[in-house]
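Review box. Two proteins, two foldings.
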Amino acid sequence: MTLKTILTAAALTVTSAMAAHACPAHEQQAMSCADGTTWDAGSKTCVPQTTS
């Protein structure tokens, strides 16, 4: 491999890694549950709402 090819591959690898970590909002999606239910972070599902 030539030095030019190695540098190009390294630059593409670094930029794609930076782009993947630049937008954490992709991992934080909003969850909406049906009426009468609420999101339970522990089980990661919608559960019936309890009223006190």
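Next protein.
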Amino acid sequence: MVEQLSPPGKSRVVIEVWSDLGCPWCYVGKHRLQAAIAQRSDADRFRIVVRSFELDPGAPHEPEENVKSFLRGHGGTVGDVLRAERRMQALAGEEGLAYSLDRLNANTFDLHRMVQYANDRSRGFEFFSTVQDGFFAGTLDPHAPDTLADVAEAVGLDGRRAREILASSEYADRVRADRDEGLELGATGVPFVVFDRRVAAPGAQKVPVYGDLLQQVAGAVPSGLSLPTR
């Protein structure tokens, strides 16, 4: 289902994505959205901004096995979780995405605080995407502060400043405010994507659906047109 928020316009498009690290559909949906944008000859017109939405604010800070985490939050059986994970792994593989079954989950509040810092410096999507891709590939531990600081440095942020933030409670209010705003806009889970504050799309849509939404808010683009990078 796609929800219309307000009439379409003609301006450069900001795409806000309410997301959480450990959400498999957020991972897949992000790459589908990127693929839809890349298909347009005016791809530089679009800016993706990550907004914070903790799915499990009460999750423990100590990492736990993915199966245990899921059962704690959703119930069911170990077999149910493993079957669902294998289906998700197969789906991700069909789209060329790495998907480790040996992930460890933990509270994501500190990660979201780092996303807020990165957003202030126009690196939020790059930072979050790097962490999320590494997490699902099984090559990165997102629950280690040093790892988050290293990723921050890798995407052009100040590593020392990142460590200061992680050792404090900075940006906590903004993380909570993001989640509240998402709920006000109609999010009941993630991913929840809002295109230029005009159209909202809950869930991980297919690439053609995202393409239609881009056209709805930004218009069709003649073949070969290239807009300058901001």
